[in-house]
Amino acid sequence: MDSGPEGDSFLSPRMLPGPDDQGDYQWPSFFSHPIRIRTTPSLWCSAACPIGDKALFAVGTSNGLHTLEGFGSHWTVSQKPFPSDGHSRKHGNQQGFREHGNSSHASVSAVEWLNPDVIASGMRNSSIFLHDLRSGGSAARLQYPHSVTKIRKVDPYRILASGYNSLQMFDIRFAPNGLQHKPKPTSRSHTSTRPYITFPEYSPDIISDFDVSPELGLLASGIYPSPSPIWPYSKVLIRGFISASDDRKIQLFSLQTGELVPSPLSQYQYSQPINCVSFESGEGDFGMGGPHTPSLLISSKATVDQWVW
User: Fold this and answer.
1) Is 151:172 a contact under the CB 8 Å cutoff?
2) Along the 309 residues of the chain, how does pLDDT read in single tens digits?
3) Same domain membership, residue 67 and residue 169
4) Domain stops at, among 149, 167, 198
């Protein structure tokens, strides 16, 4: 949660219902009252560790990367270090980034687990760094053309990052390149890491949601309603005309080439804007009602549709 003019931010963990609870999200009996872990920074994003026998979350905040760990009534929040650089060591700043009024150099706006030990964090200043829970160290690996809005893992080595009007795939096995000591994505002198694959036809007018299915080799993204331009012909000259009939649809891209993939799904138009997309694998537990084949969940307004392959 992040609410209130005074920055009343807090984390509130709760247990999901079991398969026989019919969606009852009441607090478990061992909670004497709802737990609220108050935090000073604003909370921007979070991701659950996909493997392990304990609850472990990565949390991106206005003051760096944090983890939330625990169970029942015992939870711990800890801040992780930023990548170290010469300027930080010289001035004794263990967090790694210089201290000044530009909050983009501290804001983590996207988090993703590459494995149970490594977290990828994208920042408003365009940097993407990796944090290893085993060593406690962090290292800058990539620099995006814009502020990073979302990160998704394709496999242990390849990640997808999105920003305003762009989507790129990177292979972290390649040597870091394009890194700057003081990245400024709004500056003409800003550089970025050479991507492994680009998605040239991914160009929503606003930042859209996306998800990936390595099982299918596909990326799904929603097309959002375009804001009315001040000059009605600006889209024709700059980007090509986008008619209203193209809004509120799903685009599918190949994870191998970055090109659009034709599909009957892409022809279906929703009556309301698409809020969220999420793939489910075909490895669900049959007894728990999991999908038998890969599927795509699409949230539009107050409904969630499931498209099955």
Assistant:
1) no
2) 555 566 577 887 777 766 666 655 555 555 555 677 888 888 899 999 988 888 999 999 999 999 999 877 788 999 999 886 433 333 333 333 334 344 567 899 999 999 999 999 999 999 999 999 999 999 999 999 999 999 999 999 999 999 888 899 999 999 899 999 889 998 999 999 999 999 988 876 566 789 999 999 999 998 755 544 433 333 333 333 322 335 788 999 999 999 999 988 888 999 888 888 999 987 655 555 555 788 999 999 889 999 988
3) yes
4) 198
Whether residue 214 sits in one domain with residue 193: no
On whether both 262 and 151 belong to a single domain, the answer is: no
Distance between the two ends of the chain, CA-based, in angstroms?
35
Q: Is the dihedral of CA 198, 202, 207, 212 positive or negative?
A: negative
E-assigned strands of 29-157? 37-39, 43-48, 55-61, 64-71, 74-79, 108-115, 118-123, 127-132, 138-143, 150-153
Structure tokens at 306: 């499931």
What is the H or E stretch that residue 306 is in?
A: strand 303-308
Query: How far is residue 192's CA from residue 142's CA, in Å, rounded to a whole number?
Result: 8
Q: Is 300 exposed, middle or buried (0-12, 13-18, 19+ CB in 10 A)?
A: middle
SS3 142: strand
**Pick from 279, 304, 268, 307: which is nearest to 217 by CA?**
279
pTM: 0.80
Same-domain pairing of 223 and 176 = no
Tell me the residue range of the domain where 135 lies.
Answer: 1-198
121 CB-side CA count, 13 A: 36
Both tokens of 248, joined, read 């509120």
One domain, residues 191 and 216? no
